[in-house]
Specification:
Layout (H helix, E strand, L loop, with lengths): L1 H25 L3 H19 L9 H18 L9 H30 L3 H8 L7 H7 L5 H26 L6 H31 L6 H17 L5 H13 L14 H33 L2 H4 L2 H24 L4 H4 L7 H8 L12 H20 L12 H4 L1
Helix pairs in contact: 1-2, 1-11, 2-11, 3-10, 3-11, 3-15, 4-5, 4-7, 4-13, 8-10, 13-16
Length: about 400
């Protein structure tokens, strides 16, 4: 049985790799193929009567580690300088505003038609309002440089804002002045931790001479994230800041303190670290979606009672997104289509406390929104030119 499982895992990962490298040609998001692959594996195992281990507890762990690595991978691709500050602020606002509008609108609908408390309805609505960087970033790989950078910033900020907003709503029974003060304290604390931890990890990365040094750093990053999570700190901010620092330390070389990092030598180590992070992120992301597909039930995908809600939510996602992109004078094509729901949506949905779950926001609705938003992205990108600087996507136009 062990040999068979090992062979199966190797084959599944190789198929995931094929999906990844062919997605630029087929325009089919690899997440859809991975979900289908996982579902087919389950059907085959049932048909042959194979006894599979209990895999449900593994899903949140894989998802959280995948989220960490994906945000880190995205941050390691982003250049940071004064000229890009307006671009970054704009991507932050475009990540935040649609999320807030959709969350409160959907919460009002859940509260009205589900006859539930608005706060609980809001906690259930937030997962549907967050763009999944796990799907958006790989899918933007063949867009123009500026659009790809925008998608990376926007989806990473969306993940961070979504997690912070979700935790704030679900972990506080009552929201008042004291709650906001506590939240401000948490933000200041995570910024302080991020500053110290980033400098320490960057120093280790640049000075450890042992032939194994990248894996321990990734393990420390994951450890810091989970310890911060115990104390309800927005740890994704640390992940983003750490990645941005590594990628942009050469921008700080005019400051005497940062010359100690030897920016030229440091960049070589960062490039190696980026490659390893990308490899790990691929394995974890592929494993997560295959496992999620394996755990899907046919009834959940085809549930007619939730399809109208899922369709309405998907339409609302892209209408709100179109309005916001127009307000900020960004091109609708191709940015409108890159708003998939996925890994972060699943993680937040699974994190809703039992006492705050509402029947209306079902797993079937979640799955259908993920599939529908990915299909919209797929068909939208199919009609988008793939050359790196196609008309209407030059930096001065797109930002």
């Amino acid at each position: 049985m062990t040999t068979a499982l090992t062979i199966a895992l190797c084959i599944l990962m190789l198929l995931a790799y094929i999906f990844d490298i062919t997605s630029s040609k087929t325009k089919i998001p690899s997440v859809i193929l991975l979900l289908v692959l996982g579902f087919v594996v389950k059907e085959i195992s049932l048909a042959f009567g194979w006894n599979m281990p209990h895999l449900v507890p593994i899903l949140p762990v894989l998802g959280t580690v995948g989220l960490i690595l994906i945000v880190l991978e995205g941050a390691l691709e982003l250049e940071l300088n004064k000229e890009k500050l307006p671009f970054i602020v704009k991507s932050m606002l475009i990540a935040l505003l649609p999320m807030l509008v959709l969350s409160f609108s959907l919460a009002a609908a859940f509260s009205y038609w589900g006859n539930v408390d608005f706060k609980n309805a809001l906690g259930n609505a937030i997962p549907f309002s967050v763009i999944s960087s796990a799907i958006a970033i790989p899918s933007a790989r063949n867009l123009s440089t500026v659009n790809k950078e925008f998608v990376t910033y926007e989806s990473s900020f969306s993940d961070i804002f979504g997690v912070v907003f979700f935790n704030f709503v679900t972990e506080n029974d009552h929201i008042g002045t004291g709650t906001w003060g506590h939240f401000a304290g948490q933000m200041l604390l995570i910024l302080a931790i991020s500053f110290v931890a980033t400098l320490a990890l960057a120093y280790f990365l640049n000075n450890i001479k042992h032939h194994i040094k990248f894996a321990p750093i990734i393990l420390i990053i994951v450890l810091i994230y989970f310890v911060s999570k115990i104390y309800h700190l927005p740890a994704l901010i640390f992940i983003l800041l750490f990645g941005l620092f590594l990628e942009n330390v050469d921008e700080l070389k005019h400051i005497k303190f940062f010359r100690k990092f030897r920016p030229l030598d440091f960049s070589k180590e960062v490039n190696k670290f980026k490659e390893l992070t990308a490899e790990f992120a691929f394995l974890i992301r592929a494993s997560f979606f295959i496992l999620f597909g394996y755990l899907l039930e046919r009834e959940e995908i085809l549930d007619g009672s939730s399809i109208m809600w899922a369709g309405g939510i998907t339409v609302a996602i892209f209408i709100i997104r179109a309005i916001v992109l127009k307000l900020f004078k960004l091109p609708l094509n191709p940015l409108l289509y890159v708003a998939p729901r996925g890994l972060i949506t699943i993680l937040l949905f699974l994190s809703i406390p039992v006492t705050q779950q509402i029947p209306l926001a079902s797993k079937s609705m979640l799955i259908q929104v993920i599939i529908l938003s990915s299909l919209v992205m797929m068909f939208g990108l199919m009609k988008t030119k793939t050359n790196k600087e196609s008309p209407g996507t030059a930096p001065e136009t797109a930002v």
